[in-house]
Write a structure and sequence with these properties.
By secondary structure, the chain is α+β, with helices and mostly antiparallel strands. Helix content is about 20%, strand content about 30%. A six-stranded antiparallel beta sheet has the order 3-12-11-6-5-4. A five-stranded parallel beta sheet has the order 15-14-13-19-31. Strands 21-28-22-23-24 form a five-stranded parallel beta sheet. This is Apoptosis-inducing factor 3 isoform X2. Belongs to the FAD-dependent oxidoreductase family. Keywords: 2Fe-2S, FAD, Flavoprotein, Iron, Iron-sulfur, Metal-binding, Oxidoreductase.
Length: about 600
């Protein structure tokens, strides 16, 4: 079973397209999506059929009523390089004109429903304005992350100077398309002791790796194991929406994994990996042989080491159950958050409406200081203070005091005593790689797994991705970095899968992340560690600004609030290989009061 890993010979098998029914209405809604599998015959090849092309197979005599066709505009209404949202029946379509050709696609990003017409069109793809996902305008295929689904692509024709679009009503309603995937043709019988691909960790990296293998025509056994009791879910939502239930966060439903033969082992802990015999040993003694291995174990949150650390109602947020318990305990009571990074600040923002009081304890002078700089950090701190969040800066926790075993007070090193019924600790994380110490797989002195651009570890056939790796960042001169972002984990999972199939893919994505607090989103692209200057355009007080982070003469990162699609625009420029110089930004600031950013892509002024 566990030997041969080559692509199987073409076999008659069934391919299923899973089309989720719910769509995201706005940016921070739940990422849940139900699916209804449709079975289609196929031959296991890696071609990506569009749902429209496939619908005719399901309905040999499709009724004209299943489709809508209409003129949507005059052919001169769009210039090259322009996008427009057009009405088609009761739905909408994104119409794009590039190099004299029209393309029609779904108009919403399948990730959280962003209007793509407000995104960035460049190099034959459109980039989402909210979180940076990229879609090929010719195929609708997802080319950069986050998210799992592609866009539906519609037929376009130009007749008598009018542009006509033809679309299936179903695709118009769904606004998303799951790529066709091969099913497993060698399912395990019972709890078989060998698999072709073993994936340790079911976060974004693990899930995308499994899906990519199936999309690329790989039809052997895939086992995905996780410490969690849940199927893969949208972990970044935990700290932004602590009330969310596991079923609202699930990235793919049970039926999806069953349909494509991706086996998920929940509450399954790998304790050792024997690379010589290609075997993983689980905590319960179960052994699993593999042919290829992906290590995507993520990280473990750091905990407090102070006096009283064992008292009840002190949490790190790792699971939906953690998040739900925190909200329950905080309602109408006193909450303390330790750490003013992304997780801590998102939790503080969410609890501010629910708790009687929210206090944040942080070692630095301002929140996000190392990441966003002093000025932006202070601006965000002020926003929090306006929502009654109290800050205790440049101090740390010296003791947690309990009453009948339950948290009652948090004592700070500054000798201040803060009332607390619940405490959330967000002081960083360490790679969850302890189980690899004796494996022979190289780890660095901090416990990270070093990989090359193909996500390969020091051991052939063993790949790693996600929060636990360091890798060479192409556009920062291959500097070795760790980037624990959701989007980056997706991209690395895909590259690992491609290289399991010997496709020689390399990681080249530009890091992109976001945070949401009090209904406001901050977006960030690049890698700003070591920045020596920040250039700000716009109005910090009004929370409408863009901040360029520079090192020497180069822009290395950008952050913005209420300034879309600037972060996606910068990400697209950096992805194209062009450097943005500090003097370009300074010159622009000198001459422009309008906020026009067309200089970035070489258009306009």
């Amino acid at each position: 079973m566990g030997g041969c890993f080559s692509k199987p010979k073409p076999v008659e098998l069934k391919i299923e397209v899973v089309l989720p029914e719910k769509e995201r209405a706005k940016e921070e809604l739940s990422a849940s999506a139900k699916s209804s599998p449709r079975a289609y015959p196929g031959n296991g090849t890696a071609r990506h059929f569009h749902s429209e092309e496939r619908l005719t197979t399901a309905h040999p005599y499709p009724s004209a009523q299943d489709y809508l066709e209409a003129a949507v505009c005059h052919f001169k209404d769009l210039e090259n390089g322009q996008m427009r949202e057009v009405e088609l029946g009761w739905g909408k379509v994104l119409l794009v004109k590039e190099a004299g050709e029209f393309h029609a696609l779904g108009h919403k990003c399948p990730h959280y429903g962003a209007p793509l017409v407000k995104g960035v069109l460049s190099r034959g793809r459109v980039r989402c304005p909210w979180h940076g996902a990229c879609f090929n305008i010719s195929t609708g295929d997802l080319e950069d992350f986050p998210g799992l689904d592609s866009l539906p692509k519609f037929q376009v024709k130009v007749e008598k100077e009018k542009v006509y679009v033809r679309a299936s009503k179903q695709a118009l309603q769904l606004q998303r398309r799951t790529k066709v995937m091969t099913k497993c043709i060698s399912p395990s019988l019972g709890h078989s002791g060998s698999t072709n691909v073993l994936i340790v960790g079911a976060g974004a990296a693990g899930l995308v790796c499994a899906e990519t293998l199936r999309q690329e025509g790989f039809s052997d056994r895939i086992v995905l194991c996780t410490l969690d009791r849940h199927l893969p879910y949208d972990r970044p939502k935990l700290s932004k929406s602590l009330d969310a239930q596991p079923e609202q966060l699930t990235l793919r439903p049970k039926e999806f994994f069953r349909a494509y033969g991706i086996e998920v082992l929940t509450e399954a802990q790998v304790v050792t990996v024997d690379v010589k015999n290609k075997k993983a040993v689980f905590k319960d003694g179960f052994k699993l042989e593999y042919s290829k291995l992906l290590l995507a174990p993520g990280s473990s949150p750091k905990t407090l080491s102070c006096k009283g650390k064992e008292v009840e109602n002190v949490f790190t947020i790792r699971t939906p159950e953690d998040a739900n318990r925190v909200v329950r305990l905080a309602r109408g009571r006193n909450a303390v958050v330790v750490g003013a990074g992304f997780l801590g600040m998102e939790v503080a923002a969410y609890l501010s409406e629910k708790a009687h009081s929210v206090s944040v304890v942080e070692l630095e002078e301002t929140p996000f200081r190392r990441f966003l700089g002093e000025r932006v950090g202070r601006t965000l701190m002020k926003m929090f203070e306006n929502y009654r969040v109290k800050f205790y800066m440049q101090t740390e926790v010296s003791e947690l005091r309990a009453q009948e075993g339950k948290l009652k007070e948090v004592v700070l090193k500054s000798s201040k005593v803060v009332r607390a019924d619940v405490c959330v600790v967000g002081i960083g994380a360490v790679p969850a790689t302890g189980f690899l110490k004796q494996s022979g797989i190289s780890l660095d002195n901090r416990g990270f797994i070093p990989v090359n651009k193909m996500m390969q570890t020091s051991v052939p056939g063993v790949f790693a991705a996600g929060d636990a790796v360091t890798f060479p960042l192409a556009w920062r001169n291959n500097r070795r970095v760790n980037i624990p972002h959701w989007q980056m984990a997706h991209a690395q999972g895909r590259v690992a899968a491609q290289n399991m199939l010997a496709q020689e893919a390399e990681i080249g994505t530009v890091p992109y992340l976001w945070t949401a607090m009090f209904g406001k989103s901050l977006r960030y692209a690049g890698y700003g560690e070591g920045f020596d200057d920040v250039i700000i355009q716009g109005d910090l007080e009004e929370l409408k600004f863009v901040a360029f982070y520079t090192k020497g003469d180069e822009v290395i990162a950008v952050a913005s609030m209420n300034y879309d699609p600037i972060v996606s625009k910068v990400a697209e420029v950096l992805a194209s290989g062009r450097a943005i110089r500090k003097r370009e930004v300074e010159l622009f600031m000198l001459h422009s009061k309008t906020g026009d950013m067309s200089w970035l892509t070489g258009k306009g002024s």
